[in-house]
Amino acid sequence: IDTAIVIVAAGSGARLGAGAPKAFVGIDESPILRHCLDGVFAAAPAQVIVVAPEEYLGEALSIAHAAADDADRRAADPRDVAPSPQHAGPAAVVSEQRRDLVTVVAGGATRQSSVAAGLARVWPDVDLVLVHDAARALTPPEVIDRVAERVRETGHGVIAAVDVIDTIKRVDGSRIAAAVDRSELATAQTPQGFRRDVLDTAYERATEEFTDDAALVADAGHDVLRVEGSALAFKITTAADLTRARDLVRRASR
Ligand code: CTP
Ligand code: MG
Predict the structure, then answer these.
(1) CATH fold of the domain at 3-253
(2) pLDDT, tens only, 161-179
(3) Residue 117 Cα, ligand 1 centroid: separation in angstroms?
(4) Cβ(133) to ligand 1 under 6 A?
(5) CB within 5 A of ion ligand 2: which residues?
(6) Rounded to 5 degrees, what angle do the CA atoms 51, 52, 53 make?
């Protein structure tokens, strides 16, 4: 295994306000983390590092094991029905059991410290690391593979991103200061992939908090490219986002 994916799931979900850490809130009978893992296990095999809140480590491990075992079963029986909208085709088959790919570790107070905790557990032979938000629960496996393949082709950092659809204004208080050319903008998603050495060094040297890994790596002087993300890779942040995710999953299971 030469690839790892760090799934950050240690946030509290304050904006969702669902009474539990966000990754452990149900979309249907399965929580956000489980849906995210279904997509991850349908992508090319990788070490899967789940970064969870300290009090949810056991819960995270059982969710990850269940997702791994179900992915093994789906891979063995391609007639199996797709449980989520991101499951278009049969999953890739790996020789080892997917649960052997799972590592669970406690996160930190910020997303950046949670990623750092995950990076500390990457296996020695891994040379490409993807960082992915658990909250982007319905991310299609194709997006994950696309990011990893582009890092392999170019050696650069690569993020999933989509075009901006809203009309954006630069504002100065209540005044509209300028229109912004939408063609110059993209909405950043995850996964974001990097050469392992590049990401490790950038994290070791980071002295401030960045909003995503691409910003942290770019600040360390590296090029970052984008590949096409997906509307399904939206981040579940608010109650309205959770409702949307629930509708998508319900429709896909009919
Ligand atoms: N995350 C994390 N550790 C933190 C903060 C965030 O692992 N200390 C993870 C979240 O679990 C989520 C991803 O980073 O999968 C993106 O963060 P966000 O959507 O902001 O999630 P929360 O921080 O949980 O939500 P909120 O900001 O509303 O509290
Ligand atoms: Mg947050």
Answers:
(1) Spore Coat Polysaccharide Biosynthesis Protein SpsA; Chain A (3.90.550)
(2) 999 999 999 999 999 999 9
(3) 14
(4) yes
(5) 11
(6) 140
| Contact between 180 and 169 (Cβ < 8 Å) | yes
* CA 122 to centroid of ligand 1, rounded, Å: 20
Alpha-carbon distance of 20 to 18, in angstroms, equals 6
The neighbour count for residue 178, using CB atoms within 10 Å, is 10
User: Which among 5, 27, 111, 139 is the best mutation to test ligand 1's pocket, defined by most ligand atoms within 8 Å of the CB?
Assistant: 111
Tokens of 21: 């850490």
- Can you give the three-state secondary structure of the chain, one letter per residue? CCEEEEEECCCCCCCCCCCCCHHHCECCCCEHHHHHHHHHHHCCCCEEEEEECHHHHHHHHHHHHHHHHHHHHHHHCCCCCCCCCCCCCCCCCCCCCHHHHEEEEECCCCHHHHHHHHHCCCCCCCCEEEEEECCCCCCCHHHHHHHHHHHHHHCCEEEEEEECCCCCEEEECCEEEEECCHHHCEEEEEEEEEEHHHHHHHHHHCCCCCCCHHHHHHHCCCCEEEEECCHHHCCCCCHHHHHHHHHHHHHHHC
The reply to whether ligand 1 has any atom less than 6 angstroms from the CB of 35 is: no
Q: Domain ranges in the chain? A: 3-253
* pLDDT 10s digits, 25-77: 999 999 999 999 999 999 999 999 999 999 999 999 999 999 999 999 999 88
Q: What pairing do the DSSP bridges indicate for beta strands 169-172 and 175-179?
A: antiparallel
